[in-house]
Write a sequence for this structure.
């Protein structure tokens, strides 16, 4: 099974991926760092009516946001918030737990949900609200993790032998399954407008490697130099890939340019850095762990890093950034309640 298979999986484990990284952080006994620098920006809090916790996961070019919220019965539901603040909640038919994780320019939303038998299915929700279930042939569990402006989606599914495979599904329903060479588990995390996808795979030794699959199906695997594990999570329209990697006793962010050049980085004082979003300008976002707390950051293509937290936040987790530089994520307040946010530069 994939090391971080359940990231973004359910609201009861909303921090699936960074929980794994947090445990890694504890195990590696990272040293304490300095706090984040002050930042000037406009923060908008997002709370779905009736929600116990709200998580904003993705934002499109027009400012529409998607994500999920947990109700008072600890059930997760998807939502879309348009730029004017109108919020629509939704669940695929038969869902007992819904995760919405990607939104394209037209407002189509991709994600996954659990049914009453505990099986995970992918879905695509059109801007008009029509929901299509997505399960590649042979799937026992499916997660759709990205949708592009053409309506193509990517993600991964688990087969009957518990092996994970990447896939791309075109807008007409045509599905292509793929695995990089030497993969025993594949997770495809992001797709750009050209249909190129990025993600990671695990080999027989248990090491994770990044990959790029272009629109013609050519797969290029890569590792950040000196890494034990490489985890790409986002790809922009120019083919730049962002993610993070494990090296020695720390975790750091990286950006891989379209020409294959890799830059690594950490915000000042960070004990560990995770990167989840990149826009077409090359600006990335994610969070870091100074002093064992989570703080958001943005990094420009020129390497300038600004750390930030919404007001009253005790923990900040950005997930996505659009081309205008608006960032979405969630923060935890002093009462332990999670709220979605939009950070507008």
């Amino acid at each position: 099974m994939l090391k971080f298979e359940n990231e973004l999986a359910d609201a009861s484990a909303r921090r699936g991926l960074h929980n794994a990284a947090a445990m890694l952080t504890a195990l590696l006994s990272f040293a304490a760092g300095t706090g984040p620098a002050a930042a000037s920006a406009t923060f908008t809090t997002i709370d779905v009516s009736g929600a116990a916790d709200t998580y904003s996961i993705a934002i499109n070019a027009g400012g529409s946001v998607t994500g999920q919220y947990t109700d008072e019965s600890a059930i997760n539901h998807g939502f879309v918030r348009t730029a004017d603040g109108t919020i629509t909640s939704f669940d695929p038919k038969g869902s007992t737990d819904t995760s919405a994780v990607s939104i394209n320019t037209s407002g189509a939303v991709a994600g996954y949900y659990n049914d009453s038998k505990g099986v995970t299915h992918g879905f695509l929700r059109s801007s008009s609200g029509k929901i299509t279930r997505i399960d590649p042939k042979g799937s026992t569990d499916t997660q759709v993790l990205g949708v592009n402006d053409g309506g193509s989606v990517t993600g991964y599914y688990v087969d009957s032998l518990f092996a994970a495979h990447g896939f791309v599904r075109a807008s007409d329903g045509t599905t292509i399954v793929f695995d990089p060479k030497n993969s025993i588990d594949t997770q495809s995390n992001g797709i750009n407008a050209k249909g190129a996808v990025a993600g990671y795979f695990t080999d027989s030794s248990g090491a994770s490697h990044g990959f790029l699959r272009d629109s013609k199906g050519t797969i290029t695997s890569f590792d950040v130099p000196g890494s034990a594990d490489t985890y790409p999570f986002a790809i922009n329209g120019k083919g730049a890939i962002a993610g993070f990697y494990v090296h020695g006793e720390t975790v750091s962010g990286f950006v891989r340019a379209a020409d294959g050049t890799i830059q690594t980085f950490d915000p000042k004082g960070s004990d560990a850095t995770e990167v989840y979003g990149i826009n077409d300008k090359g600006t990335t976002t994610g969070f870091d762990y100074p002093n064992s707390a989570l703080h958001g950051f943005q990094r420009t293509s020129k390497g300038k890093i600004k750390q930030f937290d919404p007001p009253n936040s005790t923990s900040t987790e950005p997930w996505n950034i659009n081309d205008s530089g608006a960032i979405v994520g969630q923060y935890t307040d002093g009462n332990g309640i999670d709220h979605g946010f939009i950070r507008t530069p």
Remarks:
- Helices lie at 16-28.
